[in-house]
Amino acid sequence: MRDRHAAWVLALALPLLASGCGGDDGPPPAAPSPTEALWNPCDALDAQGIERAFGGPVTEENGTPTSPVCSFAPRSEGDPVVDANYLLFPDGLEAAWDTMGRSETAAVTTPKVRGADDTRLVVDSDEDRLYVSGFVQNGDLIQTVDAVDPKPYDRARLVRAVTWALGEMSDHAGESAVS
User: Fold this and answer.
1) How far apart are CA 40 and CA 70, in angstroms?
2) Strands (E), 65-140
3) What is the CATH number of domain 41-176?
4) How far apart are CA 41 and CA 79, in angstroms?
5) Tally of CB atoms within 10 A around 169
């Protein structure tokens, strides 16, 4: 009886052992799924808002959930290009700012942006283009907006538009509790 019981156990265990060894009897195990990114600034910005603020039609590129991108390419030559990004930096914008290199010709201001812990706006130009970069901090989240506009550019409009985008991103960070 004991031998018969051992034979049954072995007979039941062999198929289980064989299936665990790989073989061609089934699909391979699923690969782990990529991790979604924490944030995409395009969640707060959209093509229609960028078009209104920056003054021309754009094409939005927002990447994928696992590889976010946030850029707005102009559909018309001579209109500004806009990109947004983020990083988590617990030391804050002031500490990050201290590590950044700066142009000697750039003007730096700290505009008031609703809900923001800190901001910086950098405006610079060369003979062909105007560059405006904005930084907004909400807790550990630091978001950036970069805009480049070829001549003839409207400096006041580009500064207002980047400041508007910082406000939209700051609002969204507060609403999403990511900060």
Assistant:
1) 7
2) 68-74, 81-88, 107-109, 118-125, 129-138
3) 3.40.1000
4) 21
5) 29
pTM for the model stands at 0.78
27-36 CB burial, b ≥16 within 10 A, e <16: eeeeeeeeee
Helix axes 47-54, 155-176, angle to 10 degrees: 150
Q: In the structure, what pLDDT confidence band is assigned to residue 7 with cuts at 50, 70 and 90?
A: very low
Instruction: Name the nearest CA neighbour of 85 among 54, 45, 29.
Output: 45
pLDDT tens figures, 45-62: 999 999 999 999 999 999
- Structure confidence by residue, pLDDT tens digits, 99-132: 887 788 999 999 999 999 999 999 999 999 999 9
Closest CA to 162 of 124, 117, 128, 105: 124
Tokens at residue 70, please?
């946030």
Q: Domain spans of the chain?
A: 41-176
